[in-house]
Design a protein that fits this description.
Elements (H helix, E strand, L loop, with lengths): L16 H54 L6 E5 L2 E8 L2 E8 L2 E6 L5 E5 L1 E11 L2 E10 L11 E7 L1 H5 L1
Antiparallel strand pairs: 1-2, 2-3, 3-4, 4-5, 6-7, 7-8
Amino acid sequence: MKVYQQNVCRGDKGWTLIECLIYLALFFLVGWLAFEAFYRTWDHTRALNRGADEIAATLKAGEQWRADVRAAVAAPETVEQGDSKVFRLRQKGREVNYVFRTNTVVREVEGLPPVVLLANVKACAIEKEQRRQVLALKCEIELKTRQKSAHVRPLFTFTAVSGEAARR
């Protein structure tokens, strides 16, 4: 009859319960850090996309404003109506108004419904500048920032000369 000797030292063959709990805790810590990094990156990507969309919309609105100024046949005028500022441009057969009210810039053309060109606007100012023999118009648009500490101030400046001033 053969007698098999049992291995007395079992420490090399298995894990203890404490080791399993430590490995599980480390696994969940690494998983939590990975998810935290993923969601932080996700939020920054969405903010970057929103910012890029706002910049593109501002550039498009600025080019529309410049085209309307170039098509003007009379000197532009600025009027304050209550809590909004209105910039009037007279063109052939129509009047185009740019209205800044409650953080939005709206373009109104006679006979057409108003179009919101920009939302999330902090400030909008249109000024006249005399340059040698020509009157130039400068439009400054500052967008609101969504971050508490923005590294870049979103300020855009567009300059144009009205068609009437260019013909003189």
